[in-house]
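SEQUENCE-TO-STRUCTURE ENTRY
===========================

Subject: a protein chain together with a token-level encoding of how that chain folds.

Sequence line: the amino acid chain in single-letter code, read from start to end.

Question of interest: how does this chain fold, as expressed in backbone structure tokens?
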Amino acid sequence: MPRSKEAREHKRTAKESIIVALDVETADQANEIVKELHGEVGAFKIGLQLFTAEGPRFVRKLVDSGEKIFLDLKFHDIPNTVAKASAEAVKLGVWMFNIHASGGREMIERAVASVDDVCSANGIERPKVIGVTVLTSSNADTLSRLGISERPEDLVGRLAEMAAECGLDGVVASANEAELIRKKIHSDDFLIVTPGIRPNNATTDDQKRVNTPAEALSAGSDYLIIGRPITGSENKLTAVRAIVSEIETVLQ
């Protein structure tokens, strides 16, 4: 079930719950966003587009400047490859990164073990490692076309349980499934990171399972990944502060 107001407040503030997606083409564009929003949000997400364009050096640069970075590369490969990639993510100093929970138990467990080993051997603070469940751009029809008969919420719940059993710190999931996850996994330390967040006045773009910031936090999400409603705004700071105000109504 959704957690109490007291549990959410103990975890983080409204600002800290926002992860801004740096889904842009260049480091210059990303740096402008980071500069404008420094201290106004909890973290910044670097995904496939920006990482492919600018590489690990840019990630290190932001980490070294003091920013919390969520490396959103969704590792999904044979267990050995994912374990080694996870070790490299740790060395970048990122605050959080993700792997696909659908990669299976061995892949997840090898990744977790690799992270723990590298952190222990090098004195590195352990990043949060979370599992991607079902992309928020997918719905029941998407899964059906892949030959998966489960409803999205059932598949998310099953993958979340496996992620927890294998030692992951949380999952990426829609707020539509957050309450289900909380019922299955009775731990306030298990994180739910939710993309597909759209304020009431925003478009859904290519997302299919979307929620407002207030809906997501009320349902039990911990962190909200927000991209275009902020980065596509003429005044990004105003957009962020409006979302913070909406979140604070939930935390009151």
